[in-house]
Amino acid sequence: MSDAYCSDCKRQTEVVFDHSAGDTVCSECGLVLESHSIDETSEWRTFANESGDNDPVRVGGPTNPLLADGGLSTVIAKPNGATGEFLSSSLGRWQNRGSNPDRGLILAFKTIATMSDRLGLVATIKDRANEIYKRVEDQKSSRGRNQDALLAACLYIACRQEDKPRTVKEICSVANGATKKEIGRAKEYIVKQLGLENGQSVEMGTIHAGDFMRRFCSNLGMNNQAVKAAQEAVTKSEEFDIRRSPISIAAAVIYIITQLSDDKKPLKDISVATGVAEGTIRNSYKDLYPHVSKIIPGWYAKEEDLKNLCSP
């Protein structure tokens, strides 16, 4: 049930949707508020124990402007039962023999989609990564390069451009074996190629420590009050000339905030959650320590608490 405004009751009431007739009915007075509605949900249900060959889908995927045929090519399915088995299998063989110019792109887009799903990224980032890869591929200069690293680098750049950055370590965790160094090299290569294509440098977007804060805090299971304090502290830290990477600053701020709370987190746990080495967090903490009284919100910790912080 959901709520909608009923013109007879003159107020918001609970409505019932009649799936057989497509009518939306007021549960109190029975007035039909909307008729012959189109149900856009699936017309079937699938279960884990059902056969994989029994696919109820009767339509293809959405169009894809990055593919030569718009993604609307026909695929001949495997024969289901004995009827028409010879004809279907023959057509399938001929289809496989035919060269599909988009086969490589389709596989690359599937890999990007898998990586995006594993990182919980939105569709706009996935589409941007697909577009970046297509532009690089059109230049025909990526042959012989590590494909997994190239796809991971496309996703990394897309996250930066959509203002939803991920660390290289996070991208590396879903990159099918590509190392951080390989992804870094692939990123430099892509930026160079896109720059040559446009005749100008590629806009990557600026990374701020606050971009990672909520996700890192969630990984550590911090409470809402600590998360709010960490976000305020990391925003304040940008006012000072702290020459550390945004990720290192975020990790150091989290360390300070947790040390001021009852739920103290070991440095090792913060290192695992943020992907920053323990030594780097210590050095960043050392740089932040002189400004800690101006960075930490007054409502979260008193001056006496700040004095009790361990000196670096």
Automatic annotation (TrEMBL):
Localisation per UniProt entry: Nucleus
Pfam families the record matches: TFIIB, Zn_Ribbon_TF
Swiss-Prot/TrEMBL keywords: Metal-binding, Nucleus, Repeat, Transcription, Transcription regulation, Zinc, Zinc-finger
Cross-referenced InterPro entries: Cyclin-like_dom, Cyclin-like_sf, TFIIB, TFIIB_CS, TFIIB_cyclin, Znf_TFIIB
CC per GO annotation: nucleus; transcription preinitiation complex
SMART domains: CYCLIN (SM00385)
GO terms under biological process: transcription preinitiation complex assembly
The keyword Transcription is annotated on this UniProt entry: yes
GO molecular function: TBP-class protein binding; zinc ion binding
Residue span(s) of domain TFIIB-type: 2-34
Family as reported in the entry's similarity comment: Belongs to the TFIIB family.
Designated name of the protein: TFIIB-type domain-containing protein
The organism's taxonomic lineage, starting at the top: Eukaryota, Viridiplantae, Streptophyta, Embryophyta, Tracheophyta
